[in-house]
Structure prediction request, 511 residues.
Amino acid sequence: MTKTSFSPTGRWVLAASILGSSMAFIDGSVVSVALPVLQEDFGTTAASAQWIVEAYQLFLASLVLVGGSLADRFGRRKVFSIGTFAFAGASLACGLAPNTLTLIAARAAQGIGGALLVPSSLALLGAAFTPGERGRAVGSWAALTGIAGAIGPALGGWLVQAVSWRAVFLVNLPIAAVVLWIALRKISESRNPAGGPLDLAGAGLATFGFGAIVYGLIEGPALGWTNPRGWGSIALGLAGLGALAAVEHRTRHPMVPLRLFRNRTFTSANLLTFFLYGALAATFFFIPFVLIQARGYTPAQAGAAILPLVLIIAALSRPAGAVADRFGPRLPLTVGPLVSGAGFLLLGFLPPSGSYAATMLPALSVLGLGMAITVAPLTATVLNGVPSKDQGAASGISNAVARVAGLLAVAAFGILAASSFNRALDRGLDTARVSAQTRRLMAPERAKLGAAKPPAGASAAEAEAVREAVKTALNGAFRVVSIGCAGLALLSAASAAIGVSSAKPARAREK
Prediction:
């Protein structure tokens, strides 16, 4: 075998891992583009649209660390295959869902499948390649899954527009069939017989805690904050997370080894991850709604609009990693979030009209530049902050932190967006002097945010005034969200400036 090639078995493992992981990664980004059309089709509220995203993220974030342990203990090929099959079955259920509730349940099942699929795909790579090959194999996996993630929103937008939002989920079925064929015919089983027991208590408490908090944040505004179902759910969730910390501290084989957080750089890097990736997730959730419902983009155009950001990250992440090697991680991890914060602010203060090149493109490019400066040094800092024996756990924790951040941010910023939208809509209706009756009939539509429609009995002039007020209110809500995201980016920069070491990596110092 030459230096640049892998064995036939290694190539099959790499192909299955890339295709399987890509399904989960694409699904995490592509659904956002479909949400505005899906909301229109089902006539659902903004809160229900949030649940379509959050149900998936909740189970993926809570169970992804356990998924890796299951693969090591019961067989990496077996867990990978089960995860792929579960993900495909849930995708079919999503594509055939007759209503919002069924779709949310199917998305939760997708999250469980993804939690088995993603970590076991990397475990397969670790088992199939020698230490000398492993770096190139993981690099190939990261590059190709990154490309898949980049084309995901554009592909999803095209499928939504050309076929249906259901095609976004059904496209997973032929990919899963190929992955299962490779896994069952071309990959041998491997496991780690020395692996410790599963931390099922930790997984259960994490799912309960985050699920209760998200429920309270999403449903609280509609229920009213005096209703114990809202604030009580958040209190129960916080208690669940407190119990999780106690369990993880006492168990011999924790899902989240809390001792790693004694390292200041590791803790600060994860705080940076939490704030910055939360801001990014909230922005990506709301952008398709603004583009489609307020700016008149087609789903295909909305999906393609995000491509420059992802391409900039892909193109500049490697040079950013070299900068961190030369000057130490603190500088890029402080500057990167600050540049990202500028990108969030630019998104928040877009002019109400104008071409994509003059409005969205500069803002997304600045945001992409900031993320590119941050991503590679951040990953390296997380891994360099712990002993080599803990790098697998550290990587898993960082990944879970990013997903939990997105889970909570989408829920929390939903409250902010809804409140801002309603205030702006009231101002718009006042300015247009819409009649009291039309405003009263508009009340049930408010929960749909940008999908709100004029009441059937409104005159043509009032209907147009309502549509314009809804668009303006949605733009205003996105402005508030973007400013909040810029604030999170500042907290990310502060986390790095205060807590991340400025020392160069050992290898860089030796040169």
